[in-house]
Structures are given as C-alpha cells and as structure tokens.
Design goal:
Length: about 260
C-alpha cells in the first residue's frame, strides 16, 4: 500500500488527539529508549522525543513516503524503514509506543505477546488502534468492493475486522504485565467540507482498494463509495458532518 502523508494529515488534529490521549496515560518513569512502531509522518514521534528529550527514539516505519516526511518533521528520531512483521530489535526498549498502526498487522494473538517480550522489564507497551471497522465508514468500503465490476480485483481485501474485543488483549498481556489498563473511547469527530468521511478513509483504509484499481475504474469505485458514505453521514444544519470513531487503547507495564 502506498501512503500519502498529505492525505493522511488532512485530519491531523483529529488523528493526533488519540495519540496524545495515549501518551498522557504513560506514567513518568526513567525512559532511555523508545520505539514508535508505525511512526508515520513523525508528528507523534516528535512528541515522544519532546517528553523524553534524553531518550533515543526510534521511528520504525514501513512506508518510504512516510519515512521521508518523518525525517523532515522529526529529524532527531532514528528512522528505520522496516516491516514491523519482521522487526527484531537488538535490544529491549523501555517504552514501545504505537498509535494507529498495529491494526495493519495480522495475528494479534501472536503479535502482542511477542511485542511485550521486546519491552524491558518494568517498561511499558502503549498501543492505540482504531476499532471502527463495523461502522458505515468501513463497512461501506467492503459493500462497494463486492458490488461493482471491480469485484474480482478487490474482494480479497474484504475481511473480518483486524482488531479484536478488548478482552482478548487483556488475556494476552495480563500474564506478562504488572499493571494493565485497557479502555475504549468513541470520539464524536466534527468534520468540515464535502464528503469528509470519504476523505478520511482515503487517507487510510480505502487506499488499499484504490491502489489496486486504475483510471476510470478507480474513479468510479471512489464515487460509488462516496455516494454511499455521504448518505450514511449527512451534513447537519450547520454544514458539518458528525463522524463517531471508536478507538481501543492499552497501556501495560511488563513484569520485572
Ligand atoms: C495510520 S498511520 C499512523 C502513523 C503514526 N503512528 C501517527 O499516529 O500519526 C499507520 C502507519 O503504520 C505504518 N505501517 C502499517 N503497516 C506496517 C508494517 N507492517 N510495517 C511498518 N509500518 C507499517 C504505515 O506505513 C503508516 O505510516
């Protein structure tokens, strides 16, 4: 998937809010090393470095486009262009932080305990992932994919939600943790402009579908999804679009 940092950052304020909410739940402790997994365009990595200026902060990111943007936004981060699926750091980190990235990786039952093993004893794993996959914004992408001439090209992308119930993450992490805090927040996002929910998903979940299609077919897919999603999220009298968005958070301290 090709990431477009500019499209992603169109809603940077709304996307930054959960990153900051997660960061605020990480307790104060002596942090010498941080790994920001799926660090994106670096706007969150920068905040990690601001909070722990003496720590070495590594930005682990798979997209060349995002790494290029990140190096400009956060030059004092150690950028590693690397697929998280094969990430095997040489040392454990005091803090492993990940905002809005781990839902792109499969098999969370194996992934989360493996990540906790990469946290130093007493250190923290802090993760936020969207859990909005059963909302119209996301379901209508799959519905559009299965209802058009493009179906055979994109139907393999229509899959069950990648993020499980909160209880699964508790069951995976509690045996490895001293303290664990898991919660969900649904943000009522107030968006401006025309069809902003389409513009939102175009920066993330819709991109995988559009990447596969070309030219007129790609435009037709985007338009067909756009019609559906604009009916699901009509503008209010003030011309704003209310887009509720649920997110799952966890902060777990590894056993010493
Ligand atoms: C929605 S963005 C979040 C970026 C950043 N954490 C933030 O909060 O602004 C998700 C990021 O995860 C990265 N990503 C997704 N799957 C990945 C993988 N398997 N390996 C490395 N990076 C990945 C994407 O390239 C993208 O930059």
């Amino acid at each position: 998937m090709v990431w477009d940092p500019q499209q992603y950052l169109k809603f940077s304020g709304h996307r930054l809010r959960p990153a900051v909410d997660l960061l605020m739940r990480v307790p104060d402790f002596a942090v010498r090393s941080v790994a920001d997994l799926g660090a994106g365009a670096g706007n969150v990595s920068r905040l990690l470095k601001e909070r722990w200026p003496d720590a070495v902060v590594a930005g682990v990111e798979g997209s060349a486009e995002m790494v290029a943007a990140g190096k400009k936004a956060a030059p004092d981060i150690q950028w590693q262009q690397q697929d998280l699926a094969s990430w095997q750091p040489a040392q454990a980190y005091d803090l492993i932080y990940s905002n809005a990235a781990l839902h792109w990786l499969p098999d969370h039952a194996a992934l989360f305990p493996a990540l906790m093993q990469k946290v130093a004893p007493g250190g923290i794993l802090a993760v936020q992932m969207p859990r909005n996959f059963l909302a119209p914004s996301h379901l209508l992408i799959g519905e559009t994919a299965l209802d058009g001439p493009w179906r055979s090209k994109v139907e393999h992308l229509v899959a069950p939600p990648p993020v499980a119930e909160p209880g699964l993450y508790h069951a995976l992490l509690a045996p490895l943790s001293e303290n664990i805090d898991i919660w969900e927040t649904e943000y009522l996002q107030v968006l401006e402009g025309d069809n902003p929910v389409k513009e939102w998903t175009k920066g993330t979940w819709l991109t995988r579908y559009l990447d596969i299609l070309q030219g007129a077919e790609k435009a037709a897919f985007e338009a067909a999804y756009g019609v559906r999603v604009t009916h699901a999220y009509p503008k209010n009298a003030a011309g704003q679009t209310l887009f509720p968005f649920r997110r799952l958070f966890m902060v777990a301290q590894r056993k010493r």
